[in-house]
Amino acid sequence: MDTAQLEQLGLTVETGEGGARATLALEPQVAPENPVTHQRLSHVTFQVGPDRLTPIAPPAVAGLPSLPWRSVASAGELGLLVREVFEEHLFHVERRSAQLNALGLHPLVNPETLELSAELVSGVFTFTLAADRQGGFRVGQVLRQGTPLETSAVHRFELSEFREREVLAGYLVALFDEPPARPAPAPLASRGLVRFAELAEHFGPQAIVPPRSHLELLVQMTVNGESYRFAAARLVGRTFRGLLAGSRGKVWAERFELDDFPGIVPLVADLLKVPPEAVKLIGPDTPQE
């Protein structure tokens, strides 16, 4: 790879087994400041690609978006690009921190990496929510009664879709909770479970749910002998966040409008590519294998 242009710009280029790396010394007037330590960055090291530079050090810039370098005319111009993507990351940290606070969660910013995270505790579960450099959230770690759950799937979600902490907690629990076997379940009423049919029976079909009231539902089913769970949580008005999960993890998760929802059986049949008759909805009193 021809790195002469980078050297002409004043970058120090080193080539090793992992490819070429280039280090840029930042001028004080463009060097961004770490808002936690209040230290300015003195340099940035990049992994050199054919047309772009990917920041890899120090930790505060590792993972920031890659930058074009062949069209850069000076080291000062490259330094300004670094400052621009760094400040964009700080904007995402501030924006997402405010959203976490609104949900009653405490945002944590690592002083070295400037990575944003938060913990959410719901029942026996403790979820670590981690944000990437663009402000997207994923489930970083899950503990059940203090024991880490092993999962190979990456569970990403849009934080702004959840207006209440309880809705987010319900969504995350539905991702990882597996109902235990119940060979002899107790009556519904004694377990605090309520069927929607009971609500209609006791309150009548004319009863309404106020626009901002919290609402969640859970439906269990089997498809060709495999167990699945469908969960939906109301975000606001007639907008819901839905989730379909099986023994191998999440199958589908999206927001939807109630008026456009096709129904659980048609949705599951389409997602799993099975005929509708293969989807068997089961009640909470049905024994689970």
Q: Got a strand count?
A: 16
Percent helix, as a range, is 10-25%
Query: Unreliable segments (pLDDT under 50, ≥5 consecutive)?
Result: 180-184
**Shape assignment:** elongated
Question: What average pLDDT do the residues reach?
Answer: 88
Report how far apart the termini are: 59 Å
Which structural category do the helix and sheet elements fall into?
alpha+beta
Beta-sheet strand percentage?
25-35%
Query: How would you sum up the major sheet?
Result: 6 strands, antiparallel
Radius of gyration: 25 Å
Q: What is the helix tally?
A: 5
Question: Order of SSEs, N→C?
Answer: HEEEEEHEEEEEEHHEEEEHE
List the helices and strands and how they pair.
Blueprint: H1 4-8, E1 12-16, E2 19-25, E3 43-48, E4 52-57, E5 67-68, H2 75-102, E6 108-109, E7 116-122, E8 125-131, E9 137-144, E10 147-148, E11 156-157, H3 165-176, H4 196-203, E12 216-223, E13 226-236, E14 239-246, E15 249-257, H5 264-272, E16 279-282
Compact overview of the structure:
It is built from five helices and 16 strands. It has helices at 4-8, 75-102, 165-176, 196-203, 264-272, and strands at 12-16, 19-25, 43-48, 52-57, 67-68, 108-109, 116-122, 125-131, 137-144, 147-148, 156-157, 216-223, 226-236, 239-246, 249-257, 279-282.
